[in-house]
Amino acid sequence: MSGDKLPRHEPDIPGLLSRLPLFSALAPEQIAPLAAAARERHLGKGEMLFQKGDPAKGFYVVVTGQVKLAFPSAQGNEKVVEIIGPQQSFGEAMVFLDRPFPVFAEALRDTLLIHVGREAVFHLLEVDPSFARRMLAGLSIRLHSLIADVESYSLRSSAQRVIGYLLQHGADDDPDDRPLEVTLPTSKQVIASRLNLTPETLSRVLHDLSEAGLIEVHGRQIRVPNLRRLRQFDL
After folding, report:
1. Does the pLDDT of residue 48 top 90, yes or no?
2. How many Cα neighbours within 13 Å face the side chain of 118?
3. Contacts of residue 81, Cβ cutoff 8 Å, sequence gap at least 6
4. Whole-angstrom Cα distance, residue 120 to residue 94?
5. E strands of 118-215, at which residues?
6. pTM, entire model
7. Identical fold between 13-155 and 158-234
8. DSSP label at residue 155
9. 158-234, what's its fold?
10. Nearest-angstrom CA–CA distance, 221 and 94
């Protein structure tokens, strides 16, 4: 019937939560109170979710879209800490520390989020020791990743950082002679900040790798003709 709106598909919140590494070991009856306390949040591209210094009243799960976590600077620049995609969560640590967010969060594209309130998380921590262990493991993995980032920025060259980023999009068991197709998930400026590079340096590295025949660049599409050569260059 003309004029009728198409029904909006509601996200499967229990299913989304159960697929998170943090909650994958929980039984449905353990997921249920978390899902009941969860709320949807829609953001348009460029919209802020929270600013640095805002109180952390819960944590977030990205359903669709992409969120940038970054530090602002007095000079108007920013340092991108992380780019969060679908089925990834963020904000858990601040919930437990009872501190405000140390970064701001901005949608890089139209995004659907699930917000899980801190009260529901604290209740589950009190009644289920296995959940507490799972939460600690998830936060430890995040900390390990941040330490690896610092090590990468300190010890690796600009080219090695870019190559490492590209290789993250391929599986470890991919054949070396199989071409790899990479679609950059966001702008080169954001990726440069994530890799602790200037946009000019990122563009120069991509140009140099292209001139060496290691990659082919077409806008955000990057093709790696031979993974073995790229991996060897990264050593």
Report:
1. yes
2. 13
3. 69, 70, 71, 103, 194
4. 15
5. 180-183
6. 0.72
7. no
8. H
9. Arc Repressor Mutant, subunit A (1.10.10)
10. 36
Please classify residue 226 by burial: count the beta carbons closer than 10 Å to its beta carbon, then call 0-12 exposed, 13-18 middle and 19+ buried: middle
| Residue 126, pLDDT score | 84
Could you read off the pLDDT of 49-95 as tens digits, one per residue? 999 999 999 989 998 999 999 988 776 678 888 899 888 889 888 88
Tokens 């509601």 correspond to 10
CA distance 109 to 106: 9
Q: Is 138 helix (H, G, I), strand (E, B) or coil?
A: helix
Closest CA to 163 of 235, 64, 85, 68: 235
Where do the domains of the chain lie?
A: 13-155, 158-234
Q: Is 101 left (phi over 0), alpha (psi -120 to 50) or beta?
A: beta
End-to-end Cα separation, the chain, in angstroms: 62
Domain at 13-155: CATH code: 2.60.120.10
Q: Please report the pLDDT score of residue 46 as a whole number.
A: 94
Is there a contact between 50 and 100 (Cβ–Cβ < 8 Å)? no
Under a CB-based contact definition with an 8 Å cutoff, are residues 16 and 90 in contact? no
What does pLDDT average to over the chain?
82
Residues ≥6 apart with Cβ < 8 Å to 194: 80, 81, 82, 83, 165
